[in-house]
Amino acid sequence: MQGWQAVMLAEASTAADLGAAMRAVGEHRLAFWDAMLWATARRTGVRILISEDLQDGRMLDGVRFIDPFAAHNSALLEQLLPR
Protein backbone atom coordinates (compact mmCIF):
# COMPACT_ATOMS: atom_id res chain seq x y z
CA MET A 1 0.00 0.00 0.00
CA GLN A 2 2.83 2.43 0.71
CA GLY A 3 4.05 2.01 -2.86
CA TRP A 4 0.70 3.17 -4.22
CA GLN A 5 0.59 6.08 -1.78
CA ALA A 6 3.89 7.33 -3.14
CA VAL A 7 2.41 7.82 -6.61
CA MET A 8 -1.29 8.35 -5.86
CA LEU A 9 -2.49 11.02 -3.52
CA ALA A 10 -5.63 10.39 -1.49
CA GLU A 11 -7.92 13.23 -0.51
CA ALA A 12 -10.95 13.08 1.77
CA SER A 13 -14.23 14.69 0.78
CA THR A 14 -15.41 17.70 2.75
CA ALA A 15 -18.79 19.16 3.63
CA ALA A 16 -18.26 21.70 0.84
CA ASP A 17 -17.71 18.82 -1.60
CA LEU A 18 -21.02 17.33 -0.50
CA GLY A 19 -22.79 20.60 -1.26
CA ALA A 20 -21.14 20.87 -4.67
CA ALA A 21 -21.99 17.22 -5.39
CA MET A 22 -25.64 17.71 -4.49
CA ARG A 23 -25.82 20.71 -6.83
CA ALA A 24 -24.20 18.63 -9.60
CA VAL A 25 -26.76 15.88 -9.07
CA GLY A 26 -29.59 18.36 -9.48
CA GLU A 27 -28.15 20.61 -12.18
CA HIS A 28 -26.07 18.18 -14.26
CA ARG A 29 -27.82 14.86 -13.56
CA LEU A 30 -24.70 13.12 -12.26
CA ALA A 31 -25.15 10.07 -10.08
CA PHE A 32 -24.43 10.91 -6.44
CA TRP A 33 -21.12 9.05 -6.05
CA ASP A 34 -19.88 10.29 -9.43
CA ALA A 35 -20.75 13.80 -8.29
CA MET A 36 -18.84 13.32 -5.01
CA LEU A 37 -15.80 12.10 -6.93
CA TRP A 38 -16.05 15.08 -9.30
CA ALA A 39 -16.52 17.63 -6.51
CA THR A 40 -13.53 16.38 -4.49
CA ALA A 41 -11.38 16.10 -7.60
CA ARG A 42 -12.31 19.64 -8.69
CA ARG A 43 -11.53 21.12 -5.27
CA THR A 44 -8.11 19.47 -5.20
CA GLY A 45 -7.13 20.71 -8.65
CA VAL A 46 -7.75 17.64 -10.77
CA ARG A 47 -8.36 18.69 -14.37
CA ILE A 48 -8.89 15.26 -15.97
CA LEU A 49 -11.01 12.55 -14.39
CA ILE A 50 -10.62 9.11 -15.95
CA SER A 51 -13.80 7.06 -15.58
CA GLU A 52 -16.00 4.91 -17.78
CA ASP A 53 -19.04 6.03 -15.76
CA LEU A 54 -19.07 9.68 -16.83
CA GLN A 55 -19.88 11.28 -20.18
CA ASP A 56 -16.70 11.00 -22.27
CA GLY A 57 -15.25 14.36 -23.25
CA ARG A 58 -17.58 16.40 -21.09
CA MET A 59 -16.16 19.42 -19.25
CA LEU A 60 -17.75 20.30 -15.95
CA ASP A 61 -16.42 23.31 -14.09
CA GLY A 62 -12.86 22.81 -15.30
CA VAL A 63 -12.78 19.00 -15.02
CA ARG A 64 -12.77 16.93 -18.21
CA PHE A 65 -14.15 13.39 -18.16
CA ILE A 66 -12.21 10.77 -20.15
CA ASP A 67 -13.46 7.23 -20.77
CA PRO A 68 -10.36 4.99 -20.67
CA PHE A 69 -12.10 2.30 -22.72
CA ALA A 70 -13.05 4.54 -25.65
CA ALA A 71 -10.62 3.71 -28.46
CA HIS A 72 -10.36 7.34 -29.56
CA ASN A 73 -8.84 8.23 -26.16
CA SER A 74 -5.87 5.85 -26.37
CA ALA A 75 -3.39 8.44 -27.72
CA LEU A 76 -4.52 11.01 -25.16
CA LEU A 77 -4.13 8.53 -22.30
CA GLU A 78 -0.65 7.60 -23.53
CA GLN A 79 0.31 11.27 -23.20
CA LEU A 80 -1.33 11.76 -19.80
CA LEU A 81 -0.35 8.62 -17.92
CA PRO A 82 3.22 7.98 -16.79
CA ARG A 83 4.86 4.72 -17.71
Q: If you average the pLDDT, what whole number results? A: 92
Radius of gyration: 14 Å
Spatial strand order of the main sheet: 1-3-2
N-C termini distance: 19 Å
Strand content: 5-15%
Can you tell me the overall shape?
A: flat
Number of distinct beta strands: 3
* Total count of helical runs of at least 4 residues: 4
Structural class: mainly alpha
- Following the backbone from N to C, one meets helices and strands in this order, namely HHHEEEH
Low-confidence stretches: none
How many strands, what sense, and barrel or not for the largest sheet? 3 strands, mixed
Q: Percent range for helical residues?
A: 40-55%
Note down, in words, how this protein is organized.
The two termini are 19 Å apart. 47% of the residues lie in helices and 11% in strands. With 83 residues, the protein is mainly alpha-helical.
Give the topology, please.
Blueprint: H1 2-7, H2 15-28, H3 32-43, E1 48-50, E2 59-60, E3 63-66, H4 74-80
Parallel strand pairs: 1-3
Antiparallel strand pairs: 2-3
Helix pairs in contact: 2-3
Compact overview of the structure:
The chain has 83 residues and is mainly α. The chain is 47% helix and 11% strand.
Descriptors for this entry?
mainly alpha, about 45% helix, 3-stranded mixed sheet
